[in-house]
Amino acid sequence: MSKPVLFSGMQPTGKLHIGNYFGALKNWVELQNSGRYQCYFFVADLHSITAEFDPAQKYKQTVEVVADYIAAGISPEKSVIFVQSQIPEHSELAWVLNCITPFGELRRMTQFKDKSASQSENINIGLFDYPVLMAADVLLYDTSFVPVGDDQLQHLELTRTIARKFNSQFKKIMQEPEPLLTEVPRLMSLSDPLRKMSKSMPEGCLFLDDAPDIIRDKVKRAVTDSEAKVVYNPTKKPGVANLIRIYRGFTNLSVKEIERKYADANYGVFKRELAEVIVEGLRPFQVRKKLLMKKSGEIDRIIEKGRKKAQKKATEKMNQVKETMGLSKKVTKKLPK
Ligand code: TRP
C-alpha cells in the first residue's frame, strides 16, 4: 500500500514571519520527516492574484516562498514542491467543480465576507471562487490529509462537500480529505499585543529574514506593561504573555519554566535574552536560505523537478475526471481472453 497523500500550501504574498513558521512550516517539516506521508507542498500563486498584486513582483515572491520552504526544512527529495500556475489542471478541475458547487455554499464563506469588506474596491469573482480552486488543489492529488490553520477549516469542509457531491453524482473517484489541525500559538504584534502579528504592521512583526540587529531592536521596543514581572497573564499582560509565547516557540520551555527562569529579572534582561533566543533560533534558517539563493539556478531546478512530478499525477487525475463525467471517450480496458 502506498502512503496517504498529505497536501498543503501558502500564497506568495510577501515576506514570511515567525507566525507563518510556527503556524505552518515547522509543522509541515515534522509531518514530512515522520515518513508517514507522500507530501506535496505547493505555492498558491493563482490564489494570490485574487487580491491586488504587482506583476513585477509576483514570480519573485513565488521563488522566495519556495526558498523559505526549503530553508525551513522541506526537502525536494522527500516532498514534491511545486507552483500551482504551472499545472493547468488546477484551473481546469476548478471549472468542473464550479459546475457542481452550490452558489449558496460559497456565499456563506466567512473569508469571502471578510475579504470583500477589506478589499471593497476589488471584489472579483476569483475571490468568490477561491474555495473551489482550493478544492481542486486538494482533490487533484487524491489527498487524505491537509494541515491547515483554523481559518481554512471552512474551506476544507467545503472541499469535502464537493468531493461527496461529485462521488454521488458521478462515480466514487474523489478522496475526501481530512484536516490536520495544529495547535498554533497566537502570536500578536510586538507593537500592539491586542492585534495579530501581521506584515501590514512591520514594526511589530518578526520576519524570518530579519537581521539580528533588527530583531534586537524590535524586541527591545516591544510593548509590555508597568508591572515589570515576567508572568504569563494574557488578559492583564498581553504584551508580556506574547513575548513568553515567542520564547516558548523557540525553546520548547514551558510557561512555568520561563517564569521561573526570569522570576528575578526585569523586562530589560528578559527582552535581551529573548532577542538572542530568536536570533539563534532563526540562524540555521537564514544561513540555509542565503546559500540557496546564492546558488544560481538551484531553485529553478527544484521547481522544475516538482512540476514534472505534480504534472504526472494531475494529468492522470484529470483524465479520470473527464472520463467519469463523460467529457472524453471511455477508455474501456479489455479483459484478456
Ligand atoms: N488558502 C490557503 C491559505 O491562504 C492556501 C491554499 C490554497 C491551500 N490552496 C490550498 C492550503 C490547498 C491547503 C490546501 O492559507
Helical coverage, percent range: 40-55%
Biggest β-sheet strands, sense, barrel: 5 strands, parallel
- Identify the overall geometry: elongated
Q: Per DSSP, what share of the residues sits in E-state strands of 2 or more residues? A: 5-15%
| Bound small molecules, deduplicated | tryptophan
User: Mean pLDDT score, rounded?
Assistant: 95
CATH topology of the largest domain: Rossmann fold
Provide structural commentary.
The chain is an alpha/beta fold and 337 residues long. It has two domains: 5-186 and 296-325, HUPs (Rossmann fold, 3-Layer(aba) Sandwich), CATH 3.40.50.620; 202-292, Tyrosyl-Transfer RNA Synthetase (Orthogonal Bundle). The chain contains 13 helices and five strands. It has helices spanning 18-33, 45-48, 55-72, 89-98, 103-107, 110-118, 125-139, 153-169, 212-220, 238-251, 255-261, 267-294, 298-324; strands at residues 5-10, 38-43, 79-83, 143-148, 178-181. Helix 1 (18-33) links the parallel strand 1 and strand 2. The longest helix is centred in the last third of the chain and has 28 residues, at 267-294. It is elongated, with a radius of gyration of 22 Å. The two termini are 28 Å apart. The mean pLDDT is 95. Residues 7-11, 44, 47, 134, 137-138, 146, 148, 152 line the site of tryptophan.
